[in-house]
Design goal:
This protein is of the alpha+beta class. It has two domains: 99 residues, no CATH class; 106 residues, Roll (SH3 type barrels). Helix content is 48%, strand content 18%. Strands 4-5-6-7 form a four-stranded antiparallel beta sheet.
């Protein structure tokens, strides 16, 4: 019970003090205190009565205005025109004071540029992680369908039991059962798959947006992302940033790409 009444009492006291100060100021400005009927304690009672009635839901404000008009009239003995002007201006100023207090309590509601940058960085990192997971899931079925061939042991030079010893052994430098490997494509042939769409300059947290085919990738400075190309997934590392160019490390080789 006390937890409910205490906030209401504090609100009543603050609103009474504000209304009393505004009414007293308006009476001083209009010089209504020159009337013989003026009493400060009566003015305090009028402000308290109007504040109490104003806290009644729905019709409380209308009752408060009517009661305050009658009380100020009795307190100052001034004409109704002056009393109506005093009450109207006091309530208007009180509305403005309440708005100022409410705004002070709420604090600064403007968005922070630092928070927006952190949010963008977190979002870009999440997109990069999703891209890595998608690339891994895409490559797993292909690896399961085409497992690597088991290694075939080389022909032993030791003769079988009972067989004649071999006299023509292969030269030591000759590789037996060698598997031909296709050489990796040079970086000049891979650059055509990547287009730099834009950059975000933020010192060590700079990022570059790269288009590879129909997909867009965002890579931070010093980080590597696996990008899909017609030749398969290729690792691309964002190494350096210039005025109108970026340095990428494509499949282990450096390439300088312009910023579009």
């Amino acid at each position: 019970m006390s937890g409910t009444l205490l906030p209401r009492f504090i609100e009543f006291a603050l609103q009474t003090a504000i209304l009393l100060g505004l009414l007293w100021g308006m009476i001083k400005i209009q010089k209504l205190d020159q009337h013989t009927a003026y009493r400060f304690l009566w003015l305090l009672g009028s402000a308290a009565l109007a504040t109490g009635l104003d806290m009644i839901p729905y019709a409380g404000h209308y009752l408060a205005v009517s009661a305050l008009l009658l009380c100020i009239k009795k307190t100052t003995g001034a004409p109704y025109v002056d009393v109506l002007f005093t009450v109207a201006i006091s309530y208007a100023l009180m509305f403005g004071v309440n708005l100022f207090i409410l705004g002070s309590l709420m604090g600064d509601l403007r968005p922070s540029a630092r928070n927006s940058e952190e949010f963008e960085i977190v979002t870009q990192q999440q997109e990069i992680k999703k891209g890595h997971q998608t690339a891994i899931k895409t490559n797993l079925p292909a690896q399961k369908a085409n497992p690597p061939a088991p290694s075939v042991p080389t022909n032993s030079t030791k003769p079988a039991k009972g067989a004649a010893p071999r006299t023509n052994l292969p030269a030591p430098s000759a590789a037996t059962n060698s598997v031909s490997k296709s050489p990796a494509k040079p970086v000049e042939a891979l650059v055509k798959y990547f287009v730099v769409k834009g950059v975000t300059r933020n010192a060590a947290k700079s990022a570059v947006t790269i288009q590879s085919g129909a997909k867009i990738y965002t890579v931070f400075l010093g980080e590597t992302d696996l990008m899909q190309t017609p030749d398969g997934p290729i690792p691309v590392r964002f190494k350096d940033l210039g005025d109108d160019w970026v340095v990428l490390e494509i499949n282990g080789e450096q390439a300088l790409l312009p910023i579009h």
